[in-house]
Amino acid sequence: MPETMSQAVGSQIAHDDAIKAAIDTIVAQVNQHNSTITDARPAQEGTSTDYQSLLDRAGAVKGRPLLYPMIGSGAGNGPLVELADGSVKWDMITGIGVHFFGHGHPDLIRTSLEAGTQDAVKHGNLQSNFEAYRFCEVLLDLAKRNSRLTQGFVTTSGAVANESAIKVCYQKHAPASRVIAFSHCFMGRTVTMAQIGDSAGGRMGIPLTTQVDYMPFWTEENIAKAGGEAQFIERACEQLQEYINRYPKQHACFIFELVQGEGGFNVAPREYFVALMDICKANNIAVWDDEIQSFGRTGEMFAYETLDLGEYVDVFCVGKMTQACATLWTNEYAPKPGLLSGTFTGATQDFTAGIRILEMLRDGDLYGESGKLAKHHQIFREQVAALAAKHPNWFPPVKHLDDVCGGIGGMMRMTPFGGDQKKIAAACKACFDEGVILFWCGHGPHHVRMLPPVPVMEESHWLKVFECIERGFAKVAG
User: Which of 14, 3, 15, 9 is nearest to 134 (CA)?
Assistant: First the structure.
């Protein structure tokens, strides 16, 4: 609810019993409709022409066909989403991690309706109600439990949150202009972030004005080349120090994806990050933790908590599942006035929904060794193992399940068809036709990835999800 002075008209609206009753009625009625969605189903008869018209119109706006023929109807129930043709899919990618609490969640519908009673749709530098500050206040309260983060700025997207972060780092370490990042990282699609992200296609045609030095991420291939884990850490530290020696006092920050997202859902142990972060601290280089995709999905709410790295973090970014996006920093990195601002910082609904999501993350049963994230990740692994045992020709001969199944918590990946890019993409699209929405990640090998709505999933859902996956993979395997 809006936080206003008790005598203000805004407070009267927020506490109006008639408005509350109307919202209760709407939430109950929407929930009743959504509750009829109980399983995946094909499109309704006679809808194909109208639906194709919608897809064509959407494609015309973009200038090319949609990657997936997916336009929502506005209805859904937990992990199930309805499309405009009446079909229903198991949503295991959730808008690439945005809809962590699934579809049609009553609490989020309620907060959205409450947001709609306010006068301002958008909040910004000169016109903001308190919801924007309350969102960041709640986020900071959670972040402070195990880090030195104390202040923040909210914004409209993950990429812009990253832009805010790099500005903070540049200002603190001016005139340093170089950036250190991991190979295969993804930072967003603004001009600067596309240059830092390790994707040639993502920066094609963009003038390269940002100077980036890339470090190897923790992968089995890199470890094998180095001759073992200890040797890999040693060589990585030598490479980092070599960059610093080559460009003394020219690095403003090292961007850490503690779990790589687009790069392949790659994970690394604490000791690797500590070794690199210690060198950063010794050389006055900001440690920037990008958790836009990993936040909320690892063993604890923050990935830096999962890895016990909070003391190292100078700058932090979050987005996706939080609806609103934010950049946080320590006292030492507080920017000067004028560096961060914006006509828009987000919509009222973004902040009210974001606050409620943070509360549900905080008060729920997701985290820890016995939390839902750990349980559902284990079920996912069991389903992949069963699929590989049933169809060994879909998976190359492996010594261990980890060779074809990975990730952490709510970031799940599997690697059929030898990680072949074309087959992985074709498999994901075939699975879509069979009733489950997946996506891919990695840069060779490529993987099928999931960012499922764990808070609203039942253990029994996984069998139905993998039935769809099995049918989809069969179409590609031939």
Answer: 3
| CA-based nearest residue to 40, from 474, 419, 461 | 461
- What is the reported pLDDT for 294? 97
Does residue 413 sit in helix, strand or coil? strand
Three-class secondary structure of residue 181 per DSSP:
strand
Between CA 79 and CA 97 the distance in angstroms is: 12
Domain 37-97+366-478 matches domain 122-363 at the CATH topology level: no
CA distances in angstroms from 474 to 87, 395, 470, listed in the order given: 21, 12, 6
Per-residue HEC secondary structure of 9-52 comes to HHHHHHCCHHHHHHHHHHHHHHHHHHCCCCCCECCCCCCHHHHH
- Which tokens hold the place of 360? 């549900």
Proportion of the chain in helix, strand, coil states, percent, rounded to 5: 45, 15, 35
Give the H/E segment covering residue 142: helix 131-143
Tens digits of residue pLDDT in 288-338: 999 999 999 999 999 999 999 999 999 999 999 999 999 999 999 999 999
Helix runs in 283-395, H state only: 303-306, 348-363, 372-390
Could you tell me which of 255, 256, 285 has the C-alpha nearest to residue 268?
256
pLDDT digits (tens, 9 = 90+) for 166-197: 999 999 999 999 999 999 999 999 999 999 99
Gyration radius from the chain CA atoms: 23
| Cβ atoms within 10 Å of 321's Cβ, excluding its own | 25
Among 253, 220, 218, which residue's Cα sits nearest to residue 237? 218
Residue 307 contacts residue 335 (beta carbons within 8 Å):
no
The pair of structure tokens assigned to 235 is 């060589």
| Residues ≥6 apart with Cβ < 8 Å to 246 | none
Torsion of CA 306, 293, 219, 255, to 10 degrees: -90
Domain ranges of the chain: 1-36, 37-97+366-478, 122-363
Classify domain 37-97+366-478 by CATH architecture. Alpha-Beta Complex (3.90)
Global pTM value = 0.95
How is residue 434 written in tokens? 């069979």
Cis peptide before 175 (omega within 30 of 0): yes
Contact 451, 297 (CB under 8 A): yes
Q: Does domain 122-363 have CATH number 1.10.3720.10?
A: no
